[in-house]
Amino acid sequence: VSLGRDVLDAYGNKSTVDVVLPIDPSRRYPTLLFIHGWFTVPAWYQGLIDNLASRGYAVAVFNQVNRLDVRLERWIAGATHAVDAVFAAANDPTSPVYGQLDLSKFGLVGHSYGGATSIALGATDARVKNVVALAPGANEGANRELFLRYAAQQRVPTLVIGCEFDPIVPAGRFAWPAFQAMPGASRLYVEIARAEHNNFMDFGRYGFWVFRPLTRRFAFTLRPSEHKRISRNYTNAWL
Q: Of 88, 118, 171, 239, which one has the greatest count of Cβ atoms within 10 A?
């Protein structure tokens, strides 16, 4: 369902938030906001989104309007607007999701730049109770340092999933240092052997063959279906 309300990005551009609901109208659902990665759109993750909904979560999705922006602060601002929209809709009697969202159990799932954004919001937004960061990262330089500073402030349980063969945001530069920076014991780091960055998405055979050569060890890369199975099992168990 569409929330039917505009969501502003950090530039004031408009997007919308949709919510995928499980097929059980008898109860309120724990709620997740999914945050896509740089350059991507939510439709590329439909399998992941549907998998989460099939486990009993309401999954809100939105487009970061300027998905080519590399400034992490802009991604955080856009995601915060999306969280605002979800909470406003949940409390609006005219909204199609009114009475269906349990926002005392509100979490974030994000991939790549969306994973970094999820960690940042987990550190700073009291509405967030749980985070899953899939191959989180940003570009090198100031954005990486900002990402790690947010990780050091993390205040909610967080699962970080890295990929051994990640050519985009290498786990040794992003996922693992972020996990190490997080305080407290409510955290888990999983690194999937022979996995790479893009196979959280539904590229199908094109993703498998077009993006694998970005990895120097592409001949040994895990098949996308196996990558998805492992990452979703850990994500569902953590949530």
A: 118
